[in-house]
User: Which sequence fits this backbone?
């Protein structure tokens, strides 16, 4: 991912507000002219820098005197200062100071301290990146402060939520086109991110692709059922393999139905309505 203009909408501002480490509100108060587009470009820079920074942190945590990638950590400190992400700046500076004094033990201590948290922040930001909902997005030239005010004033959305997981963008768009009139549709192209997504949203029904390269639909069911609030949430498979064996396997794992792809729009609407209504009645 790059930080050019084509990538600045790859984040969900509402989801990012839940990440206290980013201090978005403080950034908006301190820089009232900062636009959403500029802030998202900084997040794009973070996404670019984070893998190398994470590797560098692990190298420092190894407590050796070998050559380390200090530049990645230095660049991340500069970016964090601009983003007002203060959670890890102090420890990163301690790593820098300790290395300057040749005290690799202290550098390793601070690297170990932030290793897990930094990677968790990266994972959360990546979740906000891939789960965007374009219809709710502010314009790039809107100031961050004005967007925050709009989000604060926006009434809580009580629409029923359908979360569809499929590695095919075409299928995700087709499902959204059919269901968006009656439901809020959350499109997730990366099944591996489902657990993190479920910490932020509470779907009323899941549509899961049967075959995906990272995790298949069957493997996602235990993740869903691992959340207490989703012990009984309806799960419907979207599959191109509509055999009796697949239906039996899906039901045994906790799915309530399946729909064969390419699906018939009316059939999709009817089955989703049937199972969401049964859950909420």
Assistant:
């Amino acid at each position: 991912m790059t930080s050019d203009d084509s990538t600045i909408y790859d984040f969900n501002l509402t989801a990012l507000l839940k990440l206290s480490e980013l201090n978005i509100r403080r950034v908006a108060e301190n820089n009232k002219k900062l636009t959403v587009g500029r802030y998202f470009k900084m997040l794009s820079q973070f996404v670019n820098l984070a893998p190398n920074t994470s590797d560098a942190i692990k190298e420092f945590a190894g407590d050796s005197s070998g050559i380390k990638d200090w530049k990645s950590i230095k660049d991340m400190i500069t970016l964090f200062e601009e983003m007002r992400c203060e959670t890890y700046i102090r420890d990163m500076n301690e790593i820098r100071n300790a290395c300057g004094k040749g005290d690799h033990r202290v550098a390793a201590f601070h690297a170990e301290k932030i290793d897990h948290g930094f990677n968790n922040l990266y994972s959360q930001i990546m979740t906000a990146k891939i789960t965007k909902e374009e219809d709710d997005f502010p314009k790039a030239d809107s100031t961050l402060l004005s967007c925050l005010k709009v989000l604060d004033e926006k009434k809580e959305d009580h629409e029923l939520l359908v979360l569809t997981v499929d590695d095919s963008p075409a299928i995700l768009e087709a499902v959204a086109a059919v269901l968006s009139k009656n439901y809020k549709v959350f499109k997730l192209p990366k099944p591996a991110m489902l657990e993190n997504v479920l910490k932020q949203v509470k779907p009323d029904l899941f549509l899961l692709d049967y075959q995906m390269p990272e995790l298949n639909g069957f493997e996602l069911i235990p993740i869903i059922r691992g959340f207490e609030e989703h012990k009984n949430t309806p799960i419907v498979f979207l599959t191109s393999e509509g055999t009796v064996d697949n239906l039996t396997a899906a039901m045994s794992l906790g799915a309530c139905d399946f729909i064969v792809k390419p699906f018939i729009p009316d059939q999709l609407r009817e089955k989703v309505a049937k199972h969401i209504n049964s859950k909420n009645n």
